[in-house]
Amino acid sequence: QVQLVESGGGLVQPGGSLRLSCAASGSIASMNAMGWYRQAPGKQRELVASMFSGGSKNTGASAKGRFTISRDNAKKTVYLQMNSLKPEDTAVYYCNVLIGRFSYWGQGTQVTVSS
User: What share of the chain has pLDDT > 70, as a percent?
Assistant: First the structure.
């Protein structure tokens, strides 16, 4: 039983910041890979940022210089720090974690950037 619970979404003005959290619970030995994705209405789901247990990271072009992915292995939590938010960042954000050979998704959290 593995469950991912996301939090931290909400309404923010352009230029503002949010930090999303994704807490994993259940039978977890380690998180092998983790990432954040987002999907806006009418658009495909896209990768925002990802990282692996070895430390390597990938960041989508739209997120570079503004978003940072991190994790706390002890707390089994993945974070996405989002700065300098733009209206184009408005979407539902999903956490994804690879545990062993299995992939798990969070429930999604809405981020709305608007004045």
Answer: 100
**Pairing mode, if any, of strands 2-7 and 18-26?**
antiparallel
* SS3 state at 8: coil
99-105's contacts with Cβ under 8 Å and 24+ in sequence apart are: 99/2, 99/24, 99/28, 99/29, 99/30, 99/31, 99/32, 100/29, 100/32, 102/2, 104/2, 104/3, 104/4, 104/24, 105/4
Nearest to 95 by CA among 53, 41, 37, 51: 37
pLDDT of 43 above 90: yes
Distance between CA atoms of residues 113 and 88, nearest Å: 8
Residue that has been written with the tokens 């739209």 in this structure: 62
Model pLDDT for residues 91-115, shown as the tens digit of each residue: 999 999 999 889 999 999 999 999 9
